[in-house]
Amino acid sequence: MQKPSAGGNLYETTAPPLAPQPALDGPARADVAIVGAGLTGVGAALTLARAGHDVIVVERGRVGAGASGINGGQIHPGQRRDQRWLEEKVGKMRARALWDYAAEAHRWLFEVIEQEEIACALQRGLITLAHRPALFRDLAADAEHLARHYGASHLTVVEQADLPRYTGAEGYHGAVFDAEGGHLDPLALTRGLAAAALAAGARIAEDTPATALARTGAGWRLATPRGDIDAASVIVTGDGNNGRLVPTVADHVMPLVNFMIATEPLGPLADAVFTGPYAGADTRFVVNYFRRTADGRLVFGGGESYGATLPPNFAERVRRRMLPIFPMLADARITHGWGGALGITAPRLPFVRQIEPGLHVASGYSGQGVMLAPFTGRAIAEAILGDDRRLSVMTDLPVPKLPGGRLLRRPLLIAAMLGFGLLDRL
């Protein structure tokens, strides 16, 4: 049996460092106060600071300490739900607008990484693997639909017999390979965007948790243990962790804890896992996702917890999910294991709203945050600057309240997630 992983978050060892930012020291004023120095927050701060606005970002830990710095780093096309589902739920015109928004988010992400010279190990190539024959047929139909109606020429349907051209993953019935999808080091991306925002004049206060928010005349007062901030506008981010600050977030977004592990560098064995520097994910409801790093490791995520902390045996639990897919890694040493909270919504679409004038929230990216979150931060910033054309695409997404009210929603969610997990196993 494998020994428990020796290290924590692999990204802490690979992401270029960012100098610690001083905590808030007494009362402050700003044009805009942002809660959370994750991908949404730093994307908004960069846009606002470049427009000449005075911006303060408060972060309870370090930059990227939340979901932005612990996730699988995958860049998927479109929204979290497929276009045929969106067409049925919101109509073809709105579905097209959502596709265009995601496509622009994709282009902007690659552009800003290049322009800011962010060293985040960006690689192209993403394969989605079907764990049932019927789901492969669905994937192939989605790819054909995207090619016919959305001009998505970068998708390749991969029959089961052709899977070894891309991956040695076992137990799958076919896949779709996205040449424009990809993966990166998400903590490095977050730190790189934060560095760009700081260079543009934004302020980031680490170790400064936001504890309360109240309207004060035409503006807002954001309370922290280190001093209050008065601001004309406030953006509250944080993937599922700010329900106490803005209760309506808790009505729509539920945090859950996911886990990841990383193997040692695999040497020649890395080519048996992926034939190129690709990432992959499967069609299970409790999804498995994995990517090959620049130094030949496999980073593998799978499983989740509905408590508030990581269970003590989580690394071994993830390894048990990995080995049926990559049995060639039975003797590979697990060197890192980490996890943390991310936010999900009932339809797996982000909860992005202007709650009232001067107060925006963005949360619940449900696994699609690497691409969507920085761009959504930019869109919120543009709305504050007077142009809400981009943001309006996201603010009326059909994201209902979680069922059961605040007392029953967690037990109901746990029951539902366990049920879907059982279906995955069956």
UniProtKB/TrEMBL annotation:
Keywords: Oxidoreductase
Region (Disordered): 1-23
A Pfam family: DAO
InterPro entries, alphabetized: FAD-dep_OxRdtase, FAD/NAD-bd_sf
Protein's UniProt keywords contain Lipid metabolism: no
MF terms in GO: oxidoreductase activity
Claim: Oxidoreductase is one of the keywords in the record: yes
GO CC terms of this entry: cytoplasm
Segments forming domain FAD dependent oxidoreductase: 31-382
Superkingdom of the source species: Bacteria
SUPFAM superfamilies in UniProt: FAD/NAD(P)-binding domain
PANTHER family: FAD DEPENDENT OXIDOREDUCTASE DOMAIN-CONTAINING PROTEIN, SARCOSINE DEHYDROGENASE-RELATED
Name this polypeptide is given: FAD dependent oxidoreductase domain-containing protein
